[in-house]
Structure formats: structure tokens, C-alpha cells
């Protein structure tokens, strides 16, 4: 069972549908007990880093999410990916989940913000799992980007700046774009995430 974290700021219905189309059972929940029972946790998000961090804190989800991310596969999508990092600088300074070292700040580009539309993925660090997605287009909607070390980068995109598009730290993954809105490439990316983190019905350690 996949659990999608409901903290009032995610496009949870479309993410749920995307995983269900792949044949997985999915629940939308903010129950810590149900999150603990899940095999995989998905953290979507639409809005500002500051507001999302406040919602997670108010619902007393921060510490459970940090703990569970050490135990089972965890995927952050769009704003959910940004929350994986230590600090966000949108509307002030806010603490993230600290699951991946780095910060989130406004995209430094001459191009118009927000960055909205289809951009190509460039696979980094000779990552073999995601190599088939080299050059594929996925759908972005954001004005802020992660700033992290090269070894956490799985894929990037170019928008007048090198923007982390997929990141990974152990079982923690993040996708800055919306895989659920990215057509066949998005479907394949969700498949790869599930295949990479599941083996013979159990989670890879």
C-alpha cells in the first residue's frame, strides 16, 4: 500500500490516480498510524515552502516523516521535493525535513519565473536506473530550486540555470517536476521509482 501524505497542500488526487493506473493500492492520509503501515510514502506539494512547512508542523507530521523516511521508500514531488531539504528561503526562512543536505532558493535565471512548461531531463552521475529517460520532457511549475551537492543529483534540467530535477539520498527520492502530468515519461519515472525500491514484494534496504 502506497500512502500519499495529505497536509492540505498537495494535488493528491492526480498523484493517487497515477499510481493506481500502475496497479498499486493507494491511500491519502495524514494518519501517522496509516503512514507507518504503508510500503512507500509520497509527499506531493503545491504552494510555498513556508506554508507547507507550517502545515506539516501543525499536523505534527514532521518528526514521523523524518523517521519513516529512514525506514521505507519516500518520494517528494514538486514542493514535496523541496521540503526534503534542510532550509527553504521562500517568504522568509523555514526548516525543511532535512532528509537531503541542501537549501531551496529562488531560481537565478534571466528567464521568466515561474518556470512553467516542458523541459528535458539530463541524467547525472551516469545513473543507470534513470538513464532511459535521458532527453525526455517532463512538466515543471516552480520558481524555487534545490541547491545541493552533485552526488545527490540523479537528473537536472536547464532553464537558464542548472536545476535539480531528480534527487536521491538512499531511499529518499525527489522529483521537482510533476510526473503525474508528464505523460508517458512521467509514468515511466514512477515505474522506475517503484521498481528500484521494491523487490519480490519487499522494500530494498
Brief overview:
The protein has 205 residues and is an alpha/beta fold. It is built from six helices and 16 strands.
Structure description:
There is one protein chain. With 205 residues, the chain is an alpha/beta fold. It has one domain (2-203): Rossmann fold (3-Layer(aba) Sandwich). Helices cover 26% and strands 34% of the residues. It contains 6 helices and 16 strands. Strands 2-1-3-4-14-13-12-9 form an 8-stranded mixed β-sheet. The protein has a 4-stranded mixed β-sheet with strand order 6-5-7-11, covered by helices on one side. A hairpin with a 2-residue loop joins strand 13 and strand 14. The two termini are 18 Å apart. Residues 200-205 have low confidence and may be disordered.
Low-confidence runs: 200-205
Q: In CATH terms, what is the fold-level topology? A: Rossmann fold
What's the number of structural domains?
1
Order of helices and strands: EHEHEHHEHEEEEEEEEEEHEE
- Percent of residues in beta strands: 25-35%
Described by its quaternary structure, the protein is: single chain
Residues in helices, as a percent range: 25-40%
> Given the structure, what is the number of helices?
6
Q: Name the strands of the widest sheet in spatial order.
A: 2-1-3-4-14-13-12-9
The first-level CATH class name: Alpha Beta
CATH architecture: 3-Layer(aba) Sandwich
Biggest beta sheet summary = 8 strands, mixed
Q: What integer value in Å does the Rg equal?
A: 15 Å
Structural class by secondary-structure content:
alpha/beta
Q: Can you count the beta strands?
A: 16
Amino acid at each position: 500500500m502506497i500512502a500519499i501524505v495529505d497536509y492540505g497542500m498537495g494535488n493528491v488526487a492526480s498523484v493517487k490516480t497515477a499510481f493506481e493506473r500502475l496497479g498499486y493500492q493507494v491511500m491519502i492520509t495524514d494518519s501517522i498510524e496509516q503512514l507507518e503501515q504503508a510500503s512507500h510514502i509520497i509527499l506531493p506539494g503545491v504552494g510555498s515552502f513556508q506554508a507547507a512547512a507550517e502545515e506539516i508542523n501543525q499536523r505534527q507530521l514532521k518528526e514521523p516523516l523524518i523517521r519513516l523516511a529512514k525506514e521505507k521508500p519516500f518520494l517528494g514531488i514538486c514542493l514535496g521535493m523541496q521540503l526534503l531539504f534542510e532550509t527553504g528561503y521562500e517568504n522568509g526562512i523555514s526548516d525543511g525535513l532535512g532528509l537531503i543536505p541542501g537549501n531551496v532558493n529562488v531560481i537565478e535565471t534571466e528567464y521568466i519565473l515561474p518556470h512553467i512548461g516542458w523541459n528535458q531531463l539530463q541524467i547525472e552521475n551516469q545513473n543507470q536506473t534513470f538513464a532511459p529517460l535521458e532527453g525526455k520532457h517532463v512538466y515543471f511549475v516552480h520558481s524555487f530550486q534545490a541547491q545541493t551537492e552533485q552526488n545527490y543529483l540523479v537528473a537536472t534540467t536547464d532553464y537558464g540555470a542548472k536545476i535539480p530535477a531528480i534527487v536521491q539520498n538512499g531511499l529518499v527520492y525527489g522529483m521537482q517536476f510533476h510526473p503525474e502530468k508528464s505523460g508517458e515519461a512521467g509514468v515511466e519515472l514512477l515505474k522506475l521509482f517503484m521498481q528500484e525500491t521494491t523487490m519480490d514484494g519487499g522494500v530494498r534496504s
